[in-house]
Amino acid sequence: MLLSLSQANGASVDEPPSPGEVLRDLRLPGELKKRILALNPGLVSETDVRETLAHSPAPKIFLIHGGVPASGATMESFGEFLVEMGYPREALQNPQHRSLSYSPYQSSSGMAGYVAWYYEQTGMRPMVIGHSMGAMQTNLILHVLNGEFNHRLSVWNPQTGKSEARDQITDPLLGTSRRVVGLKLSYASALAAGGMARLVPSHWIMLGRLRTIPDTVEDFVGYYIGMDPIGGDLLGFGSVNNYNPVGSAKVRTVSLPFGAEHFSAPVVGHLAKNPETRAWIDRYQPGVSLEAQKPPPADSGHIVYAADVWHSVKQHWVLELQRLIKARNKLIGD
């Protein structure tokens, strides 16, 4: 297990790692490394998760809930879904109070600083998944990392919630110093952003930016819901809800099927415990028509969201591990 990952998810970390330290501390059995490198990131089975990924470190995921009080519990359900599907709980938990979600009202610059801290400590780029106001915050973090509001961003320690008063990290894969501005997430998604959420003053800064995705994320997916005045523009209909890259980011927009509902869409913890729905989620492939995949009629609107996010999470879990192992092999020569 990656030593700095266990530190990042609990134990105290007093100083940044030295160049090459994260790679040298990556101790995975040779057979496990071979299995990870042999995985197809786009076709990760339940067996792959159980027998290979479950024995490996995982990138940090920030789940950002909506702006109303009940939204915390809503995103907790999504976190429990990921845990039940096989994602490590410690890679989801907020280290300050052990919950599985973050507030959309936290400082976006601070959240960007958390991203830098976790990347420096673990060598894997974090993921951010937001719902409603949290989806607005997710996109704001991307623009903050892009340097659109401040050309200097500090590293923030998520264990203390405080700035470390430095704007550079040691890139764990390259061993060189780099600024926080310009760091890239591996994956981010936004569910039901827009609509009435645009009226909240704390996110007025996103007017004109919400549907544009900068190069501070490798893979972005935006989800919208028809007949959703709270989180959809023009009631969640039409191309006005589409997200577009401004550069090289891979961007998809997904219209969730009939039955999805704004407030309860992330409440999917039960789907991982039902053998029928879990099996469908594991088989799901983005880009294949739902008519061909035939989702179960119960919770059909929400199961597509759960399955699509889980597919992306598995994919980037594998990609980040493969990237980390290849960097270590290049440094150590094994």
Order of neighbouring strands in the sheet with most strands: 1-2-7-9-11
Q: How many DSSP H or I helices?
A: 10
Number of domains: 1
Number of strands: 11
Task: Give a quick account of the main beta sheet: strands, pairing sense, barrel closure.
Answer: 5 strands, parallel
Which percent bin holds the helix content?
25-40%
- State the secondary-structure class: alpha/beta
Element order, helices and strands?
HHHHEHHEHEEEEEEEEEHHH
Radius of gyration: 19 Å
Shape: globular
**How large is the share of residues in beta strands?**
5-15%
Write the layout of secondary structure elements.
Elements: H1 3-8, H2 21-24, H3 30-38, H4 46-51, E1 61-64, H5 71-85, H6 108-122, E2 127-131, H7 133-145, E3 156-157, E4 162-163, E5 168-170, E6 177-179, E7 185-191, E8 212-213, E9 217-225, E10 244-245, E11 250-256, H8 275-283, H9 290-293, H10 300-332
Parallel strand pairs: 1-2, 2-7, 7-9, 8-10, 9-11
Antiparallel strand pairs: 3-4, 5-6
Describe this structure in words.
This protein has 334 residues and is an alpha/beta fold. It has one domain. The chain has ten helices and eleven strands. The strands form four sheets. The protein has a five-stranded parallel sheet with strand order 1-2-7-9-11, with helices on both faces. The protein has a two-stranded antiparallel sheet with strand order 3-4. It is globular, with a radius of gyration of 19 Å.
